Structures are given as C-alpha cells and as structure tokens.
Amino acid sequence: MLNKDEIKNIIPQRDPFLMIDEVEEFVPGESATAYKDVYADEWYFKGHFPGNPIMPGVLITESLAQTGAVAILSMEENKGKNALFGGINNMKFKKMVVPGDRLKLEVKIIKRKGPIGIGEATASSNGELVAKGELTFAVVNN
Predict the structure, then answer these.
(1) What whole-number distance in Å separates Cα of residue 23 and Cα of residue 36?
(2) CATH number for the domain including 108?
C-alpha cells in the first residue's frame, strides 16, 4: 500500500489536484489499483453543485488517469517524467459519486508503443460500476 507521500514520489500532481489517496497495488508498466475517498469539503463541491454535491465526471476521469500514471511512471525508464492525456475514448458514467463514497480505481495498460499507450480504466464504489473507458497517454519529460 502506498500513501500520498509515496504516490508523490511517482507522479507530479499535488494538492489540491492530487486525486488519489492510496495505491493498493501496482505492477510497473502493467496495472495499478488506487482509492479516492470523497469528502464533503472537497474544493469542487462548492460549485458542483451547491446543495447537491456530485463529483464531476472529469475529476473521476482524472483520478483514473493518475492511477494509470502510477503504473507507467513507476517504470525505471519513466522516473521523473510526466504522463499527459492523449485521448479519452468510450468513457461512460454509470453512477453519481457523492460525499462519503470511496472510489476504487483500476487501470490496466493494454497497449504501449514508445511513449504512447492506452489504459483500460474502471472506477467503482461499493461494488457498483461508476465509470469505464480507455485513456490514451503520452509520457513526456518534465
């Protein structure tokens, strides 16, 4: 299990935009499983939506991307680099994410060619599918 400080040794995101709290397991270059605890005082709930807080789908997607970045950037040859979005394909949102939810974020790298790759990404909460899709990334120097 990696905590936030250990995650920050792998990926460059920082608060308030570090969107994963812990990593349960990862295999460099292959997969990662992480968690995001969703709290009522998250910065984005002030405007999305007042009186009806719902985690934005783009931030669920970002949480998944950061999980995939742990898998890619933990590879020896990618240490100190960054993984940028190259595309988001077939992302579907099936359930709202609200304060009190604990997101389980799973990314499996299904294709890599040079600095470009694709991850199959799934988010769930309480055993229910929240979001699923494919994330294309590009590894770049910082």
Answers:
(1) 9
(2) 3.10.129.10
How far is residue 38's CA from residue 61's CA, in Å, rounded to a whole number?
14
Instruction: Determine contact, residues 131/122, Cβ cutoff 8 Å.
Output: yes
Q: Which strands sit side by side in the sheet containing 81-93, from one edge to the other?
A: 22-27, 31-37, 102-113, 116-125, 128-141, 81-93
Encoded tokens for 99: 């304060």
Range of the structural domain that residue 44 is part of: 4-141
Angstrom distances, CA of residue 102 to CA of 8, 12, 45, 56, 78 = 20, 23, 16, 15, 29
* Count of domains forming the chain: 1
d(CA 73, CA 18): 15
The residues that are catalytic are 48
| Cα–Cα distance, 113 to 138 (Å, whole number) | 10
pLDDT digits (tens, 9 = 90+) for 20-45: 999 999 999 999 999 999 999 999 99
